[in-house]
# Entry
Amino acid sequence: MTMKRDVFITEVALRDGSHVVSHQFTVDQVVQVAKALDEAGVPYIEISHGDGLAGSSLQYGFSHTNELELIEAAISVCNQAKISVLLLPGIGTMNDLKEAANLGAKMARIATHVTEADVSAQHIGLAKKLGMETVGFLMMAHSAPVEKLVEQAKLMESYGADVVYVVDSAGALLPHEVRERISALKNALQIEVGFHGHNNLSLAMANTLVAIEEGATRIDGSVRCMGAGAGNTQTEVLVAVLDRLGIQTGIDLYKIMDLAEEIVAPILPAPQEITRDSLILGYAGVYSSFLLHSQKAAKKFGIDSRDILIELGKRKVVGGQEDMIVDVAKELVKKAATVNN
Ligand SMILES: C[C@H](O)CC(=O)C(=O)O
Ligand SMILES: [Mn+2]
# Structure
């Protein structure tokens, strides 16, 4: 029997949550989480390095286990859930996508900075050719005006995307800004619209509900908020809230609560909360995955990680510019030395 779903949830703890464990997921962890998500009725489970396919590198952090091995292992234990992969053109290649599709990944999410959708044309085209459900993922959506977002989403639609997402990578969007963006996309596009939130300003749930009110039907969540920064919209809470609203997700509430408590919570290095640093991410509009890199640099150079993050926000740094974190830290140290002399 096919499950009626009003909203389709993509669980991202095994991809966005990879940032939380510095990309050290093991096969055993992935198998346990994916199996339980599948049994709970989650329709899509994303698995890749936190920065997408082929993200394992000095720049982004090396993975413990090759992501293709993780994808293969997850597919082997899922009966109904489809495995999704994330790919950032320039990090992942066409070949990486082909390998994931050959293993059985059914959905490809092609992620670009919100103003750079044109670099997704080839990858969206290839994903469609490979028979994958294809999503355009417009990151750092707070950093461009609504008209720009619409223009870029239309490009992704024209390349063949089945869905376009508003991605609040920095957890910086306020509810009225989510409303404007989702409603503009709903008016301009023929395809489905999605929303991916981060909880740095404690607004992930509110923003997700606004997105659904405006017609978004694809929603990302992470169990126990296991995602970069303060994490994403908490999946098990979202399932409960949507159930109260009479919106069907097809996900079993008790089962997703149990897996959150018994399987995911023990994997977290610390419970996900809004710390002063993750709050600054949302406040300054900085990519959530810069958190751990900035904390590391702050420790190394003996400065306040908030100062690094605020400066990165001023410079409007985008994903892929992780090397700027150390540059900024060095400049701050130099500036402080000049002031003190
Ligand atoms: C590569 C990023 O971590 C993608 C994402 O989840 C975001 O921009 O948010
Ligand atoms: Mn994210």
About this structure: The longest helix spans residues 323-340. Strands lie at 8-11, 44-46, 82-87, 107-113, 133-139, 163-167, 192-196, 218-221. Residues 16, 50-52, 88, 111, 139, 167, 169, 196, 228, 288-289, 319 surround LCEJXURD (ligand 1) (CB under 6 Å). The chain is about 45% helix and 10% strand.
